[in-house]
Specification:
575 residues, alpha/beta, Glutamine Phosphoribosylpyrophosphate, subunit 1, domain 1, Rossmann fold, 8-stranded antiparallel β-sheet, 7-stranded antiparallel β-sheet, binds 6-O-phosphono-alpha-D-glucopyranose
């Protein structure tokens, strides 16, 4: 979603802020803007649409050494220049991520006539109103905590003050630490070109950032912060020679899965056997990770495992025993609904375990226990390597002891799968012209279908549905026409015959069938038969990689904006 970058230092600020925003483009946005200080005056430029529209309008050679920039993903008010950030009212210019829930009350309190429709513009007006009274911006920032309702990460500059200010609550913000220069950003990739050292602002903290000094405060008192170091190679966050981040990240999986495996070698993982029930919560693909492991968990742990969509779980009436575990899964560690579900589980007094990629993220910090996957920075909106690393870590949690050797075989199988890229790209040519694609499978195979279908629709814009194979004939089979592609997954020996029958049903109605299986199935059910010759606990990881590659190449054939599909955001920090 929205991205924030701010710079103060010895170098020209505009190119740093613009390149930082470029590195946050992956989060999804629909307008962009920058404010910079020149000869003691604050200048603002904003544009609708792609960041390049803004880049074309701003002269990067200007001698400005303090700037804040923003990419906006519309929540309050349509994408437009007036609604884009930065917002300037009186002495205050700011960029804001999050939602100020009581902005209407604040607007009425100060009787402000807004120009646009955003809560952020009202926020700027309100801060300006307080600043006129207090005449001390740090005092104002301290006061805001008890006034603002909702979530915010704010970068701010003040007329006639050569400093950069920031504050946060429930929306991520970091302060990058350079040499003679400092940064603020909503996400680490924005600063990696310049530094890998940063502070993570905690809820309620605010800071004054100068080129060679950073002071962080909480409740009026200065706090000492721990310096974090980004542990991955910076090139891991770059596209290198790949056409898209999605393809690069599909290939990264070999290393990401290896890193995830290795980092837990010899580590005692939490014992899930002590719980009498488990609920797994996530959004989007993270929810499907839970679906993919549900059967394994129930089989191995012999307890009931529920998998819940976070936006539902947070509002649902749930009764959990004291010996219950809630596992939350999130790549970003900032998804609003997942974070709210975690907070709910904590209120219910049960144990919580977070499976997260981004170190120090809100979910990682709030959970009783956190296990990090080692996927590195994931930039394509459609998740690939984070998904398979989450899956791996969750499988390791139940299979660790007996299957460690088998898990290390995984890397070889990943390589074999990646080597089939060319073949799978040719397969995409037989799918891309269709408007509907269906996925069929039962139980765990169905869970994989859900992820495969999501991947395909988010990047290629083809309408796609995943169906529990036996359910299709209760309605949706009416959509099968001559040539409609149907992808079936058959990896469960006990019910393989049942899914085979369902594939026959669609084939009899003209479907073009692609069957991915490790079972012996009749040749005539498949127009394309993809045999995965493995029986292993990590099999879903391999199947998902096939589906990722197919989705990628279908989207490529259709000329889609693969890394930044329309309307989607990488990190969904609002409800
Ligand atoms: C967005 C992304 C999905 C992701 C979901 C949950 O919708 O586009 O790829 O699965 O959010 O994100 P999280 O960061 O919590 O895993």
């Amino acid at each position: 979603m929205c991205g924030i970058v701010g710079y103060i230092g010895k170098n020209r600020a505009i190119p740093v802020v613009l390149s930082g925003l470029k590195n946050l483009e992956y989060r999804g946005y629909d307008s962009a803007g920058i404010a910079y200080v020149l000869n003691n005056k604050i200048k603002i430029k904003k544009e609708k649409g792609k960041l390049d529209n803004l880049v074309d309008k701003v002269n990067s050679d200007i001698d400005s050494f303090l700037a804040i920039g923003h990419t906006r993903w519309a929540t309050h008010g349509e994408p437009s220049v007036v609604n884009a950030h930065p917002h300037c009212v009186g002495s205050i210019t700011l960029v804001h991520n999050g939602i100020i829930e009581n902005y209407d009350e604040l607007r009425e309190e100060i009787d402000y006539q807004a120009v646009g429709e955003t809560d952020s513009e009202v926020l700027a007006a309100y801060i300006d109103y307080l600043y006129k009274q207090e005449k001390d911006i740090l005092k104002v920032l301290n006061k805001l905590k008890s006034i603002l309702k909702g979530s915010y990460a704010i970068g701010l500059i003040v007329n006639n003050d050569d400093s950069l200010y920031c504050l946060r609550k429930d929306s991520p913000l970091i302060i990058g630490l350079g040499n003679g220069e400092n940064f603020i950003a909503s996400d680490v990739p924005a600063i990696l070109e310049y530094t890998n050292k940063y502070y993570i602002l905690d809820n309620g903290e605010y800071a004054k950032v100068l080129k060679d000094d950073v002071k962080v405060y909480l409740d009026g008192k200065e706090v000492k912060k721990k310096v974090n170091t980004f542990e991955f190679d910076i090139t891991s966050a770059q596209k290198n020679n790949y056409k898209h981040f999605m393809l690069k990240e599909i290939h990264d999986q070999r290393e990401a899965l290896y890193n995830t495996l290795k980092s837990y070698e010899g580590v005692v993982l939490p014992d899930l056997r002590k719980y009498d029930g488990i609920t797994i919560v996530g959004c989007g693909s993270a929810y499907y990770v839970g679906m993919c492991v549900k059967d394994d968990y129930e089989k191995v742990l012999n307890v009931k495992v529920d998998v819940e969509i976070a936006s539902e779980f947070r509002y649902k009436r749930v009764i959990l025993s004291k010996k219950h575990l809630v596992i939350v899964i999130s790549q970003s560690g900032e998804t609003a609904d997942t974070l709210a579900s975690l907070m709910k589980a904590k209120t219910l007094g049960v144990d919580t375990l977070a499976i997260v990629n981004v170190v120090g993220s809100s979910i990682a910090r709030e959970a009783k226990e956190v296990l990090y996957i080692k996927a590195g920075v994931e930039k394509a909106v459609a998740t690939t390597k984070a998904f398979t690393c989450q899956l791996l870590l969750l499988l390791m949690l139940v299979y660790n002891k007996n299957n460690y050797q088998k898990f290390t075989d995984l890397i070889k199988d990943v390589e074999i799968t990646l080597a089939k890229e060319e073949y799978l790209s040719s397969l995409a040519k037989s799918i891309y012209k269709y408007n509907d694609v269906f996925f069929l499978g039962r139980l765990r195979d169905y869970a994989m279908c859900l992820e495969g279908s999501l991947k395909l629709k988010e990047v290629s814009y083809i309408h796609s549905e995943a169906y529990a194979a036996g359910e299709l004939k209760h309605g949706t089979i009416s959509l099968i026409e001559e040539g409609t592609p149907v992808i079936a997954i058959i990896t469960d020996k006990e019910i393989a015959d049942k899914t085979v029958s369902n594939v026959k049903e669609v084939k009899a109605r003209g479907a073009y069938t692609i069957v991915i299986t490790n079972q012996v199935v009749p040749n005539d059910i498949a127009d394309v038969l993809i045999n995965i010759d493995i029986e292993a606990v990590y099999l879903p990881i391999i199947v998902i990689i096939y589906l990722q590659i197919i989705a990628y190449y279908v989207a490529l054939e259709r000329g889609c904006d693969i890394d930044k599909p329309r309307n989607l955001a990488k990190s969904v920090t609002v409800e």
